[in-house]
Amino acid sequence: MNEKFKQLELFLKSTNFDRGIRLGVAIAVPFGVLYLLGLFEYAPAVVVGAFLNAPGDVPGSYKRKVNAILVSILLTMVITTIILFLKPFFPFLLAAIALITFLVALISVYGFRASLVSFSGLLALVIAFAVQKESAVEILLQVALMGIGGLWYLIVSMVFQRLSPKKDENQLLSDTLLLLGEYLKLRGKLLSKKEKRDDRLKKTFALQTQINEKQETLRETLLTARKRSGRSRYEEKQLLIFLSSIKIFELIEAKHLNYEIIDDVFEDHKRFLKASKKLNKVMGNHLIRLAELLIQKDKIPKKNVLLHALAKANTSITDFIEVVKLPEAREGALILKNLYDYQEQLLQEIRAIRRVMANVKDASRVSLKRQDSSKFLTLQEYRWNVLWQNLNWKSNMFRHSLRLTIAMVFAYALGYFFEIQNTYWILLTIIVIMRPSYGLTKARSKDRIIGTLIGAAIAVGVVLLTQNTVVYALLAYFSLILAFAMLQLNYKSAAALITLSIVFLYSLINPDAFEVIQYRVLDTVIGAVIAVIANYTILPSWEANTLKPKLLNALEMNREYLLATQKLYQDRTAYKLPYNLARKNAFLAVSNLNAAFQRLTQEPESKRKEFQLIYEMVTLNQTMISAIASIGNFIINHQTTPASEGFNTLLHKITNALQRSVDRLDQEPLDSKMEEETIEEAQESLLEKYEQLSNLRDENIKKGNTELDTETLHRLQEAYLIANHMNWLESLSSNLEKATERYGVSLQET
């Protein structure tokens, strides 16, 4: 029960509920004020204007948020004017529906915020059919009042943001830490249980994508919010937590271990991995609790559990050596030691977040140059050429816009000729659930129908209990607020609440509530069926056919990341910034590839062409970026020896393999391969360095020198990690080259 109360508290303090309250205020105040002034007949138009422009109010840059809402206001006013004037002229109205739907849907090419502005425009198109205005004066007055309503919502949003200026950022940070905690726990489960490893690896793809999306929004919000005069103490705290979250994410990625080696080395000694797995779980739970405390403002939990789990992980190394004995135990001990070092670094970042949240005065400040920080922003281009480049059959958004247009025109014509009472409910269902991908459209259709049925069932129960219009009005109002708050959290629940709101709203107009419920359910089902069929049959964009650009980008960014790591090995100080930029670009590229694979899994089995091959390439890219991150993380956090000739030779071979993979997909002429003898020599030289250090260590042990100094330990760790990870990367790049060759052939055959 306590857990349920805690989740309720987190929801009530969340930005999702906050945005629901904003909408509630934006609706209630005009109704109340205009009623008191005797101008209640103007209230619906103002409220509609506020409602239409609420979608663009999402976390991010304050300037971009304001601009998005202003553009949304202008767009909704223009669209409403056109539809209201053309209503009596069916042919022209149908043409207007087609043109507006296509152009407005195409706005989504400018990114997530633009897609919300696009949704507002489409929503205005649909709601215009519910507005009964005939004369030019009535229409222009309706549109003007809608504009006032939109500006009113913008004012409400600005006031709420002024009252809680950092609430959006805190929510994003909380969401990020929560996802990182879940990700860290999942990584721990991968360590010892190999029977469920494939399924869990697929789950990591979804988590990586979500974390990258949150961190991208935080970059936009935190790095663009800095004033020339500097940051406030509170902004400093948020930035410190954000930077620690980035480091934690990289560290987790850096330990995508070679599980085949771990399974082999610890085949009969899995119990020595339990302490590391337990530490991951403890740290993951601690991150989740810190995420909650960013919203709850409660006491920070004690660190004793963390330190105890870390000590147990350290003890497991010596226990392993005592049981297996050196030199046989050396490889396993180095694996456990490298794992311990990585977990210790994770713990340091978690403790850094703890210190910031506890307002420790000596918590380090952020030294981040403006010109450097701006390089980490992924800026959205808003030029006309972006739109122009998408006006072709290869563009997913072009095909989606055309598909949506055909579905909307068909639905309206269907309603017109069959005299369906509320055709715009069908249109509303279509614009809400129809997405560029078939899988998401199908999932949203299912949730929409189930949610509508649940909402209708609840509405029937309420109608049977009471016919009180005041109760209907209150339920309609509060259902809408909760629906808006739940929209991003649980679409099925949001659909149920939207149904409740609409049913009770119309019940105030139509005394036969059961008729309203009946039509609502029927129209929702019709709209959902049209959306799913349209997505499946009209210019379908199957993910398997559109994966190539994302795969190419992942290959290229992994190659750039590896080259940046080579430079980092040469000089940590000079090449730290280029390395960080290359890392960010590679993480985003692989995240986009993972997201595409997730969408692919939602599509019909008959459309998942080369599914296993695609899964292999996605996994290889993900494993490769993790192996590179592991090398880079070691270089940054340890005093290393100069990069050997064998390292550079092998790296050159790996980057060439990645380039050949790109060339195969692009059907470009291939570079000649390096001689296999050279590669074997490079691999042997790296392993030989590790073996020399191991042999030297064995001789010292025989002489009675059992104490291991830090410098020797770090050299052993470096030699082992570099030799194993470079050989691992060479194997991954070779497998990736073979996989892309097969994939390229399959693309040519289709």
TrEMBL record:
InterPro entries named in the record: PHBA_efflux_AaeB/fusaric-R, YccS_N
Ranges that cross the membrane: 66-86, 92-109, 116-133, 139-160, 401-418, 453-485, 491-509, 521-542
GO CC, alphabetical: plasma membrane
Main subcellular localisation: membrane
Subcellular location: Cell membrane
Every Integral membrane protein YccS N-terminal domain range: 69-320
Keyword Cell membrane: yes
Protein name: Putative membrane protein
Species assigned in the record: Nonlabens marinus S1-08
Lineage: Bacteria, Pseudomonadati, Bacteroidota, Flavobacteriia, Flavobacteriales
